[in-house]
Amino acid sequence: MQTRTQTILELRGTSLGTINIETSEPEFFQNTVLRPILKFQNELIIAVFQEYISICKNKYTTFSIDKKMAFVENSITKDVNLKNTFKGIVIGLFTSKEFEIYSKNSSHYNKRIMAMIVERIKSQLQIFE
After folding, report:
1. Do residues 38 and 116 touch, judged by C-beta distance below 8 A?
2. How far apart are the first and last CA of the chain?
3. Nearest 10 degrees: CA dihedral of 26, 121, 13, 110?
4. Exposure of 40 by Cβ count < 10 A (0-12 exposed, 13-18 middle, 19+ buried)?
5. d(Cα 106, Cα 114) in Å, to the nearest integer?
6. Are the C-beta atoms of residues 98 and 25 closer than 8 Å to each other?
7. C-alpha closest to that of 28 among 43, 15, 46
8. Which of 92, 6, 9, 98 is nearest to 45 (CA)?
9. pLDDT, tens only, 63-115
10. How far from 81 is each of 22, 27, 102, CA to CA, in Å?
């Protein structure tokens, strides 16, 4: 029987991005843990943001591209509930060891997570039309 760690690591797949001897610990964590999780969870991230747009009942679809990008960034950085939802989507796929690493510098990693989610959503804006 597989352990939770083995199952999670298999689901996420391999690291994304370049890793070499000069890679810093935060960058290593980002490329081996955060990026694979975000790629794996992309469908859910998009669904959550789609639901957020519908709940806000704003005129998102009438916004220009620039306003849509600003809306994405402002929503994810300023809406605490949305931010916590996205953090949970990512943290829920950490192994115990990865959670220990994350916990030592959570505010730094949270900024990285949110920045990557913002960029991920911005790069897929056409989905929200």
Report:
1. yes
2. 44
3. 30
4. middle
5. 12
6. no
7. 15
8. 92
9. 899 999 999 999 999 999 999 999 999 999 999 999 999 999 999 999 999 99
10. 36, 27, 20
The pTM assigned to this predicted structure is 0.88
- Convert the pLDDT of each residue in 21-44 to its tens digit: 666 888 889 988 999 999 999 999
SS3 readout for the chain: CCCHHHHHHHHHCCCCCCCCCCCCHHHHHHHHHHHHHHHHCHHHHHHHHHHHHHHHCCCHHHCCHHHHHHHHHHHHHHCHHHHHHHHHHHHCCCCHHHHHHHHHCHHHHHHHHHHHHHHHHHCCHHHHC
Residues in the chain: 129
CA distance 42 to 36: 10
Cα separation, 90 vs 31, whole angstroms: 14
